[in-house]
Structure formats: structure tokens, C-alpha cells
Amino acid sequence: MKRGVRGERTRTRRIVRAGCATLAAGCALFASACSGSGSGVTVAADPAAAVRQAGTASSRIGSSAVATSVTMTSGGKTEQFSGTGSFDFTRQIGSITLVVPPEVNAKGTLDEVVTPTTLYMRPTGSTAKWVRVDSDKLADGDLISAGYTSPVLAFAMLAGAGAAGGTVTYVGQDKVYNTPVAHYSGTLNLAAAAAAASAPLNSALASASRSFTKQSVPFDVYLDAKGQVLRFVAHFAFPAPAPQKGEVTIVSSTDIYDLGKPVKVAAPPAADVLQAG
User: Rounded to two decimals, what is the model's pTM?
Assistant: First the structure.
């Protein structure tokens, strides 16, 4: 009887050990499946380097649809701008239909064409001449003067990610327009971005670095499996114009989607353009 009991106990221990081993293997497999890439995006070992490289990778997208939003707050008042359009990254030109506050335009929307050197604007549906504004005459280099951040400038800004004592960290997995992305957050330095950029983007970024209250810009960026930017969010601040006091804060968001979508956009003919005073 005792021998039988001991045999049963030995067999029970073997079963328990085998069960534990199977459970451990199952847990390891489950953990591997959860931590693996699966439907997610591989996390970069060096987040700052991945974000800096994303700007270059994104400039090769070719063309895409773009959605933008800007929230501007000053003196307790908040204004919202939003728009949709498309960009040709190879030619560095895009168009946006922008929804603006009534005090900016009574009709509520503006059509804009933007290049790294020039901004063209007119009310949506208007047959009036386009108003041309040269970027080098804008204090911020047209980083947000158009009512949004051009994705071309957004890509160039990422070259300053983590520079001058800044940091970049991985936040987690997310989706942008149902595409899996890796979310990174940190600060970028506008002067460093300007130094890394080629003309004419370097001039625009250098102007912005001198105009904003701080050269260190908090940002969030969402990269797809190819390391391309699908969403970029930046937080800017600059001194409020006189006689106001304090500063104007801006949150600018740029979404890139429908990658490779054919884009037909051109600057307006010279005969249809008025130079801003």
C-alpha cells in the first residue's frame, strides 16, 4: 500500500512537472507572439536616429493626401484651423483647402498652394487673383503662417530630433488611418534642423529658430513599418504681438495618408498672382 502510494505520488509529481513545463512553454510562446512585430511596427533600438532618418525616408514617398490641423491660443482665446489636400514631395509643392476662423476669412475657407519659398492664397471658389507671400518675408519661414505645417518642412524638422540636449523616446504602438505605426515623442532643435537641411528649407527653419520663444520644440511622430512619417505633431510658441503680452502657443498636426496617390498641383500662373505688400 505504501509502495503504491509512493508510486502514485511520483507519477503525480511527474505530471505536475510536465504540466508546468508545458505551461511555461505556452507562456513563453504567448509572450513572444505579443512582443513580436505581428501587426505592430518594430521598435527602433535608437529612437532618435530612427526619427531623424524618418524625415529622409518620408521625402521619398513621392506623393500623398494630407490632413492638417492647427490650434492657436493667445490671451485666453483659441482659434482652430483645419484642412485637407495633397502634396508632391518630389517637387516639394502642395495644395490645401483650409477651414479658417471667420475673422481670417468671412467665407470660412481658403485655397492655398505652398512651396518651400512661396505661399499662394485666395478664398475658396473665388476667381480673384492669388495673393503671393514669399516665405523669406515671414518671420517663421512659413512654418505655421499658412495655417498649417507643410509636411516638407515637418520632414526637415525631424533632422533636429534629440539634438542640443533633447531626448526621443518610444511611446507605444498605434494606428494612423488604420495603418500600424510606432509612436515616438521628444524634442527637436530648430537650429540643428536648419543646419542639416538643404536650401531653401534651411532658411525657413533658421528663420523659425529665431522667431519662436524656444528652439526646443516638443513633438510626437508616428512611423510606419518602412520608417515613414504618417503623423507629426509639434508644439510651438512665440511672443504675442504688441500690445498683447505673453506668448502665442500653437499645436500643429500633419497627417500623411494614401501614400503614392497621384497629385496634380502647380503654382498659379504669374498673370493670376498679386504680390503681398
Answer: 0.83
Burial of 159 (0-12, 13-18, 19+ CB in 10 A): buried
Q: Using one digit for the tens of pLDDT, what is the confidence trace for 197-214?
A: 999 999 999 999 999 988
- Grid coordinates of 203: 532658411
Interatomic CA distance for residues 192 and 99, integer angstroms: 32
Q: Is residue 119 part of a domain?
A: yes
Range of the domain at 73: 47-275
The tally of domains found in the chain comes to: 2
